[in-house]
Specification:
Blueprint (H helix, E strand, L loop, with lengths): L5 E4 L8 H5 L22 E7 L10 E5 L3 E8 L5 E10 L4 E8 L5 E8 L4 E11 L2 E8 L5
Antiparallel strand pairs: 1-3, 2-9, 3-8, 4-7, 4-9, 5-6, 5-8
Length: 147
Amino acid sequence: MPFKRKLTILASTALLTPAALAGAIAPASAATGPAAADSCTDYPYALAGEFREGWARESTPYNYLVPQEGTYTACLDGPADANFDLEVLQWNTAAGGYQLIAASRNADSTERVTWNSPANSTQYRLRVVATSGYGTYTVGVRFPNES
């Protein structure tokens, strides 16, 4: 029996828009090719979030389980006048917590991260960090063999 992909959102409704929460389990429309991957909204799993003045500068992590080996891609599209970063954390049973395995920390809010996952089912987290500025953002995830 094949593994079923699961995207579990663990975030405050203050950080996610109602539209993102409503579509959290079903994937967004799939991208049609490499050019379509330029926008996070074109990724198969995409969610919107927001940072406002006075809010925490880190999002509550977006969790998901990885059922297959291969290369995964995550993206972040944020406001042009802000600096948001994207981090990938992996569950480490021996350490009893999550460890940072990849990050994209450009000077703007357009971030892309790829990483390889082993064949076993592992839990990953995506975390958005607002280094400076405020505004809405979109986070997207692409599993192996998804274009």
